[in-house]
Amino acid sequence: QVCAQLCRRPCYCPWVPPRCPRGSPLVLDGCGCCKVCARRLGEPCDFLHVCDQSQGLVCDYSSAPAGTGGTCNFEDDEEGCEVNGRLYRDGEVFQPSCKIQCHCLGGGFTCIPLCQEDVRLPSPDCPFPRRVEIPGKCCPEWICEGAQEQPLPRDARAAPGAVSPLLRYPCPPWGTEWSSCSATCGLGFASRVSNQNRLCRLETQRRLCSAGPCPALPAALPA
Question: Where the protein is mainly located, per its record (predicted)?
């Protein structure tokens, strides 16, 4: 009886189908007559305005007053996620972009990066590394920019970051802070990673350090 009241035969549909928002496909209405935009999760629905069945949605009338429309919800009432206008079911793994992968769980989602977040330090063959986007590739890549040759200063050893006589390009200084002394008292070693050497190569450097005098040992008792 409801179908007879709402559905007219023959069908009278607009010449131009409606333009749907992103994530909402064109589907047949409840009469199987005209193309309409499928309703998404949480949107109102009724007999004519159907929910997106491809996302597992049905029109839920359980919380609606009698005689009114319902709300689009998952058929088994499970929680889902909506990302960029698209719905994902609980437990589903998806990629909103080529750079991240996400997991829908409990109504929310967590994502992990798919591109390596590595760090490239200056080196003799690549004194000025730079990360750039490459056309046709998803993840950015490291490129090496050529350094312009500069004349050597008169005293190359006194100028910080100056070029070594063995190198043809400047050596940008890089290094970590010195570590704490390895000993709690007396002499010990402190270390760091630095490229300040003749070949501009990363190496572990050590130096002596003093953590103060050690406490005197108690005198041995006479036997």
Answer: secreted
User: pLDDT tens digits, residue range 39-74?
Assistant: 988 899 998 899 998 888 888 887 777 767 888 888
Do 67 and 86 sit in the same domain of this protein? no
Are the beta carbons of 61 and 45 closer than 8 angstroms? no
Count of Cβ atoms closer than 10 Å to residue 195 Cβ: 20
43 and 98, same domain (yes or no): no
Q: Does 109 fall in a domain?
A: yes
How many CA atoms, within 13 angstroms, populate the side-chain half-sphere of residue 46? 9
Q: How many domains would you assign to the chain?
A: 3
Query: Is residue 68 situated within a structural domain?
Result: yes
Q: How many CB atoms lie within 10 A of CB 39?
A: 22
Segment (H or E) for 2: helix 2-6
Q: Tell me: the pLDDT tens digits for 108-165?
A: 788 888 887 777 777 777 778 888 888 888 888 888 876 443 333 333 333 444 444 5
Relative to beta strand 108-113, strand 129-132 is: unpaired
Place of tokens 């333009």: 19
CA–CA gap between residue 111 and residue 101 (Å, rounded): 5
